[in-house]
């Protein structure tokens, strides 16, 4: 992905544990416009979100509840309206994001991460989970091309909402993003990917997972939501 077009966008925070950040790569060299760093409140809010998700995924519910209580207390103390804070990563586009770059906090965190190890672990988790599910689910990409760093393992299911509910019961996080085409998308292009929107589920294979975390594979073999 991103190897043949004129430009490519990469959302780094979807692969690495960062509050936000991305890259714009162009085929031909062009001057980069200077961007202001992301607002501190935005960076703080998304760092808190990252911590909340990490504690929940690790099973540290007491710590997560304590963090929630503390953040609510601070929010009330400073009269902070979270809904007015600019954030990235959701299904709704905020045009204010165009005027900002990544924060220095995200850049500092990125320097602490070994990118080669991330690729190795993600490829290993993808291959292992695909092997568990092969023959039980439709895998549109069962093999990884050389050099690919997978974002997730896509699987095609007949009943996407029910399948997501079954994953939730197993303690597996998956979100139903981009299930509706953008209103500005041409109808023929929207129809071309309608099947993917309606039936594709993204299973997590991120670098923090180990073989003991293969709940989607074990759950799928145990029962088959249709």
Description of the structure:
With 226 residues, the chain is mainly α. It has two domains: 1-113, no CATH class; 115-222, Aspartate Aminotransferase, domain 1 (Alpha-Beta Complex), CATH 3.90.1150. Helices cover 42% and strands 10% of the residues. The strands form three sheets. It has a two-stranded antiparallel ribbon. It has a two-stranded parallel sheet with strand order 3-4. A two-stranded antiparallel ribbon has the order 5-6. Helix 1 (40-58) packs antiparallel against helix 2 (61-78) and helix 4 (115-133) runs parallel beside helix 8 (215-222). It starts with 6 loop residues before the first strand and ends with a helix.
Question: Any idea what the radius of gyration is?
Answer: 19 Å
What's the N-to-C terminus distance?
A: 31 Å
Our count of domains comes out at 2
Poorly predicted regions are 222-226
Described by strand count, sense and barrel closure, the largest sheet is: 2 strands, antiparallel
Computed structural class: mainly alpha
> How are strands sequenced across the largest beta sheet?
1-2
Helix content: 40-55%
- Envelope shape: globular
Percent of sequence in beta strands: 5-15%
Number of helices: 8
